[in-house]
Amino acid sequence: MSSDHSGPQPPQSTRLAEDVAGTVRGGNAARRAVLGRFARLFNPLIRWLAGRRGVSPFAVLRHRGRRSGRWYATPVTALPMGDGFVVPLTFGEGADWFQNVWAAGGCVIRWNGAEYSLAGPTVIDWAAARSAFNPLERVLVPIIGVERFVWLQRETAGD
């Protein structure tokens, strides 16, 4: 899969400042701790449901490990947006799945019973991702505290 981004690392523009501010306030650390417990508890169920027809927004994101070369399957929330999908970076840009997708320049996603090859990961903010979410999700996402998302474009058959 090809990618138009440059460099092996995700953008760091405001991430350090946000992490430092969050650590001082305790917001990011507390949010990550709660979401981490929730994820460990519900990931087996979500992994079983994800990607099946009629169970959107849950999807399975398949990505190759940047060091091991192994294939991994990670349950994520994915929503169609434009000619691709937007995936919340719930645990930030340091999450292994995101680092792997960024390094490879793409991944494969199983969403709503179909598989899509995706490329060109682009980190976007809430203002750019908001249109992919329904009205209830537009209220919940800011409460949960997710501010960054990755948008991945569908690869066409000719790519």
If helices are DSSP runs of H or I spanning 4 or more residues, what is the number of helices? 5
- Give the percentage of residues in beta strands: 25-35%
Question: How would you write the strand order of the largest sheet?
Answer: 2-1-5-6-7-4-3
Structural class: alpha+beta
The average pLDDT is 78
Sketch the major β-sheet: 7 strands, antiparallel
Report the order of strands and helices.
HHEEEEHEEHHE
* Shape verdict: globular
Q: Number of DSSP strands?
A: 7
> What is the C-alpha radius of gyration, as a whole number of Å?
15 Å
Distance between the termini: 8 Å
Residue share in helices?
25-40%
Unreliable parts: 1-26
Question: What do you see in this structure?
Answer:
The chain is globular. It contains 5 helices and 7 strands. It has 159 residues and is an alpha+beta fold. Strand 3 (79-81) and strand 4 form a beta hairpin. Helix content is 36%, strand content 30%. It has a 7-stranded antiparallel beta sheet, with helices on both faces. Residues 1-26 have low confidence and may be disordered.
